[in-house]
Amino acid sequence: MNKQLRKIGMISILLLSLAIVSPHGVLAQEFPTKPVTLIVPFGPGGESDLIGRALSSVAVDHLGQPLIIQLKPGGLGIIGTDLVAKAAPDGYTLLSAGDGWNTSLPAIEGRSKGPDDMEAVCRLSYNASVMCTHPNSPFKTFKELMAYIKANPGKVLTGLGGPYSPGQMVWVKLMKSTGISIRMVSFDGAGQSLLALLGGNTDVGAATPQMMLPHIKSKKLIPLVYFDKERSQDFPEVPTLMEEGFNMTIIQWRGITAPKGTPQPVIQKLGMAFKKITEDESLKALMQKTGLSLNYLGPDEFAKFWRADYESTKELKSLFKK
Q1: Residue 157: helix, strand or coil by DSSP?
Q2: 8 A C-beta contact, residue 190 and residue 46
Q3: Mind listing the pLDDT tens digit for each residue in 188-207?
Q4: Angle 123-127-132 (CA atoms, 0-180°, nearest 5)?
Q5: pLDDT for 211-239, tens place per residue?
Q6: Of 123, 126, 128, which is closest to residue 96 (Cα–Cα)?
Q7: What pLDDT does 27 receive?
Q8: Residue 167 sits in the same domain as residue 184
Q9: First to last CA, the chain
Q10: Distance in angstroms (rounded) separating the CA atoms of residues 51 and 58
């Protein structure tokens, strides 16, 4: 009898344990069982597109399933962001996130999706930008550019890679602090903005060194100023904004986010998979060849970073009041 009771007790404990296992835990153990889609909310040629395609080249080895890249441009990143935000929170639809459409737009205008609306998976990159001009422009240094703008108010046209891009953040601050006037036109992604600059349709533009460097080396663009605290190793002769007398740095980031409510075990598993992807030697070689750089933060660290970036950007809201 005692043996039977003990046996019944053990079976009861086993059944109880199975009953209280989190369905999210089971989901995470099985995840992923099909390809994962990464939505890039801009057109081809920009940094988000290049990083996404580089990640997809090795993703299957570490994620266990292919990473499918889908370009969904439009609305300054809002259209693609909304598609992901409304997707099933199961980890199979992710967003190529960035500071413009996932920090600045929600923080300053209350549009798009920020850290309150989506789950942080990982940060992929953290870069400063470089401002460049076309060789045919009447200025060849940042000092010459500023002097030209003062002498020709409203004449210089700059292309922006999207909402609150590094270039726009710089020019809004410069216009507020110096009283200068410059015209700005926004393109649907950094790739389109760069094409306009290369074609001589705009006078100045800013993007990451990775995008600008090939054109700087080929003399198709002239670098004017760098937006970080220290000079870039890629073009050490180019001064920083601080060296030019302006106490500011402008940084942009790219990352991966998921729909709100995606189970944390799935988020953590995705975060670990992307960590392994960014450490892949094949990916590192590809990044070096394309000039792209990665700077990984996991889900928890990225969530804190994103929140801090969002809150600090909200403090700049008054600069954009018309």
Answers
A1: strand
A2: yes
A3: 778 889 999 999 999 999 98
A4: 150
A5: 899 999 999 999 999 998 899 988 999 99
A6: 123
A7: 58
A8: yes
A9: 84
A10: 12
